[in-house]
């Protein structure tokens, strides 16, 4: 049912995006199923969520690491946040063969009483360098038999990993060079404890479990990052791996180009936490579910993001500008949106328009305002390039002065 605009006025508004003239990082090319896109960091706070706005398994994860960088250290480690399914025996990642290591961490949150803050941890579970003497690929297998027992114990009598993966739970998978070993801290609070190099993680085949005392309370703090470590591109076949909901400003769906359509299912999104900001162009209505997208339209001109005619759900859309240098999507979400709409015509779908700038990245927040009714639909991203202006001297007129400029440039290209 369409809500009456006489009670709560609906306003569609937009501002032209500022010109983003500096591009601080080159995004990776789109790959099959899921691509690293903007760099996946090597620690939980900077990891790349394999995120989606609809529930679907992932078949492949692509990206690259490098020991070189334009500034500072190289991009030596990529870490991805993923979910397990109901059958954890199906969980399997096959890594690259350029001397790589795959390391598994359990995502957990810990309340640090000393600082009264909640810390997100990457609790070490196991690591693997090679599957076997003849197979130089690291294979992270949720139900693999071990080829060599850990000297610290930790294996069940059936030869399987002592700690099985938890179903329907979130884990971090890190890709690094075989000689790059994580440091762990045996105190969960971020301000206390000593970082120790994770021992017994090289020189053998199969998965090595973290020491028993580290599987329950420790967390990753940094990587060894040796100068001699291997690095390169990867396109890893994965199984039993599910996406996490793109329901926070950090966990987003990457959208590149135009036109692009993405399906969504609000039933896949968790209920929003208390204190979640409402939509400024729909005052008085409470957000019940949300998804976030980053869009690089690769075009300068009129841009449209819409669910109009593509869903029966009651949606709203906001658009924010992401800082080109920091790439901080949560900082963008804390700013005023450059466009906002929650009602497309007489329907409860939504459509925003704004002026896009090539090279810029925009954060798009898609929300559901009323819990009842349709949960599924499609969101569409379109950018139309603005044709070159005939006003060559920029005086607001197209006249003889512009023609003179054109004739003055007549001749072979380059003259």
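-> sequence recovered:
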């Amino acid at each position: 049912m369409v809500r009456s605009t006489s009670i709560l006025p609906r306003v569609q508004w937009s501002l032209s995006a500022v010109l983003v003239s500096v591009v601080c990082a080159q995004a990776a090319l789109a790959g099959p199923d899921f691509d690293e896109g903007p760099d996946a960091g090597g620690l939980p706070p900077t990891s790349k969520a394999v995120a989606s706005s609809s529930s679907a398994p992932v078949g492949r994860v692509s990206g690259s690491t490098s020991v070189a960088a334009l500034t500072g250290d190289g991009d030596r480690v990529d870490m991805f946040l993923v979910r397990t399914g109901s059958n954890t025996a199906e969980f399997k990642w096959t890594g690259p063969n350029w001397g790589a290591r795959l390391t598994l961490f359990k995502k957990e949150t810990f309340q640090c009483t000393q600082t009264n803050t909640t810390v997100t941890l990457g609790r070490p579970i196991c690591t693997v360098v090679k599957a076997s003497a003849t197979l130089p690929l690291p294979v992270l297998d949720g139900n693999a038999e071990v080829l060599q027992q850990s000297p610290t114990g930790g294996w069940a009598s059936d030869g399987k990993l002592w700690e099985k993966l938890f179903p329907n739970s979130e884990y971090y998978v890190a890709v690094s060079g075989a000689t790059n070993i994580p440091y762990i801290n045996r105190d969960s609070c971020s301000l206390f404890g000593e970082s120790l190099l994770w021992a017994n993680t090289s020189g053998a085949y199969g998965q090595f479990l973290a020491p028993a005392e580290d599987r329950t309370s420790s967390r990753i703090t940094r990587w060894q990052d040796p100068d001699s470590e291997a690095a390169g591109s990867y396109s890893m076949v994965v199984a039993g791996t599910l996406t996490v909901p793109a329901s926070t400003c950090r966990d987003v769906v990457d959208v590149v180009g135009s036109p692009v359509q993405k399906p969504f299912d609000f039933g896949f999104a968790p209920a929003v936490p208390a204190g979640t900001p409402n939509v400024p162009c729909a005052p008085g209505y409470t957000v019940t579910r949300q998804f976030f997208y980053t869009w690089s339209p690769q075009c300068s001109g009129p841009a449209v993001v819409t669910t109009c005619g593509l869903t029966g759900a009651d949606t709203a859309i906001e658009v924010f500008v992401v800082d080109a240098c920091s790439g901080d999507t949560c900082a963008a979400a804390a700013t005023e949106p450059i466009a906002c709409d929650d009602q497309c015509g007489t329907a409860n779908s939504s459509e925003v328009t704004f002026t896009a700038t090539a090279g810029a990245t925009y954060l798009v927040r898609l929300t559901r305002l009323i819990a009842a009714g349709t949960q599924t639909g499609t969101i569409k991203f379109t950018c139309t390039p603005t044709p070159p202006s005939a006003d060559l001297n920029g005086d607001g007129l197209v006249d003889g002065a512009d023609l003179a400029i054109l004739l003055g440039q007549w001749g072979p290209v380059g003259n």
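Residues 57-242 form one domain.
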